[in-house]
Amino acid sequence: KDVKDYLHLLDKPLDEFEAPGARNSTLGEDALWHVLYSLGQDNTYLNKRKAYWGLVLAVRDRMLEKWTAVQRKYYANDDKRLYYLSLEFLPGKFLRGNLLALGLENEAHEFLHEHDLSLDEIVDEECEPGLGNGGLGRLASCYMDSMATLGLPAYGYGIRYSYGLFRQEIRNGHQVEQPDNWLHEGSHWLIPRPHNLFPIRFYGTVNEWLDDDGMLRHDWRGGDLVMAMANDMYVPGYRNGHVNSIRLWEARPHKEFVLSSFNAGDYIGSVQEKISDENISMVLYPSDDAPEGKTLRLKQQYFFVAATMRDMVRRFKKLNKPWDQLPEKNVVQLNETHPAIAIPELMRMLLDEELLGWEEAWCICQKLFAYTNHTILPEALETWPVKLIERLLPRHMQIIYEINRRFLEEVRLHFRDEPELPSRVSLISAGPEQRVRMSHLAIVGSFSVNGVSSLHTQILKDRVFHDFIRIFPDRFNNKTNGITPRRWLRQCNVPLSWLLSEHLGCNWITDLTQLKKLRELVDDVEFRHDWEQCRLTNKKRLADYIEKVNGITVNPHSIFDVQVKRFHEYKRQLLNILHIISLYNNIRRNPDVKMQPCTFIFGGKAAPSYQMAKDIIYLINCVARRVNSDPHTRNFLKVIFLANYNVSLAQLLVPATDVSEQISTAGYEASGTGNMKFALNGALTIGTRDGANIEIGERVGDGNIYLFGLCEKEVLALRRRGYDPWEFYKNDSELREVLDMINSDQFTPGDSTAFSSIFNSLLTGGDPFMVLADYRAYVETHKRISHEYVDRDLWIKKSIMNTAGMGYFSSDRAVKEYIDGIWSLEPDV
Ligand code: 73E
Q: Which residues are annotated as modified residue N6-(pyridoxal phosphate)lysine in the UniProt record (predicted)?
């Protein structure tokens, strides 16, 4: 059927004040108007580009009307506001989601139809803003969607990077990074606000002076100034008339040219300064789960935080309220420690500019800030050299010292018999180079610290921040992550959404727990048939993409087994490829084997400096080349690497996946959110007892998930006992064969050392992520999967039970938990 014939069945009706007719022109008329008057192009005929840009501008008009009304309401109601500070946002493409939220899909279809175009081809015109690395940035975007849908007075804050995460190309099996110039055509989704401009200082010196009461005061001056200019991105709630915004700061030169050197004839020298100032918001750092110790990174953090605190204080001052009301009217959520420098920055503003006393200022900070931790990888806990902060932000370093002095004094007072405790919890680490521990700063300066899954929060309490639990017993809490059902089901999986709305009505889109009613339908043969058809439609669409992009034909009836995520040793893409090699060996040994054909799909980027991760990508591509071209196996086994994995590609993959690979070493993946997207769309998970996998298992039921391998406690115990990967090498002949192949030229003819780094890490290197320890359990679990997949009734029932159990993982639920447990906000709809 034509999409436009069934859209009205899919979605909630619009709220009354939203009804069409509130405007006296149609979306299409406005789009044509914009083609002529905003783009300056002939609107008597349209091509894809013109139609796209015209639509964007017409949709934007409608969002702006709502956004200004909502801002007025915030002021009128004197609402408490949430500031969500994140160095990363990954919104994905906007057009489809915005049309959906605003209830404009039908109008858009009609307009495009009149011009012989379709929405599918139009959305290709849009390029996706890659302003994040992975899960952390995508989580921020899911939460912004839920906040708008729940009608919260919330603002996202981040950086308008000129270059997002690099575009990944695969050349001869290797990852090659290309710049992502996502703004080269401009983006009308981003509105520059040249009047929202703040100077941000770096370097300089601190002067002391005495105020009228004889109190010692500080004044930071000199150094370099850079301007922070606002750019706003709009986030409409789902059909509720509510629109929020994400403010992304862009660095601008403080002076156009340094006039003196310009006059002295040093033209290039004077432009140089302009260039280096703009560098601050030039590019996103491409490491996920690992800190980047570069000065420019710290500059980025301070730059966006300082501008954001200014903006918050500017709005607060309009209310003419005393300072102690700041935390009653605002709350600041820190997404990881990346924005933690906000704490000393607000202290500086309150002390040095507003002339508050220390206690008063500190009390405000501790009631205002809340911190979310996303990772426990020891190497990922952010620290900055004291020397660097002293130079770049001299006043902040003084304030951090003072926070620490007072904090440790309290600790000594309350824990007299533990002389070691102060140095363990100190904000400053000792050692040859003193460093500021940003997580300690964030914990001490906040009223709430949360982890992102039950297990992760437990690990924070038991291990990583154990000392702090005793000092601040009420500060720690869990908020298990969630994903937005608008993008991750309604938008990416139209066939299934239709089926769901037909049977459950459409309230699941904003109340995902409704999905549990699917359990009553698992025994309905016709329903199961329709379910399977939806899945097949999605798999065919993915197969077409793979054919077009990779030039490889895959069988849509094969098991689509997918692992897409950043490349990291702890995520263990290696375990996956080792198993594939052993499957390959088995098929070659038994050419007549009866086996369910399998398509293994990989996607994901490696940080450009992470050599091991890049080697693993190369290994996968080399294995793929060999397997896909072997006439003995190619009907049973295909291995596909999809280049440049991003949000758009995820939207294509997620609904087409049968088996979702979530196989991190237990204890390492804080939560994972990809795991949720797949299970929500009816994939079955093969996973370790790690992060949110455990909670997914609890909700979909033991029989509907394939959990395997060591649990977190067993990983710790084995390491303590002394883990020897050689044992597994010696005792498992299949595994040994696979490892020996990697250590030969089997996959790289003529070059037998291509993967020796991998082989060595797994054996002589001690296999830090215990790939070999989990290998056998993983292989056996895959055998079960392959066996059970063939029983179509059984499999489809399990698939339905997955979707049915995933209601809990809506970001609406997660955001509501933040509201109740941390933010104390009122929805304003
Ligand atoms: O487990 C994921 C989690 O689902 C975790 O690895 C990821 O955050 C997701 C959302 O909670 C994450 N990313 C980072 N730390 N944890 C990170 C660290 C430094 C730079 C960029 C990202």
A: 677
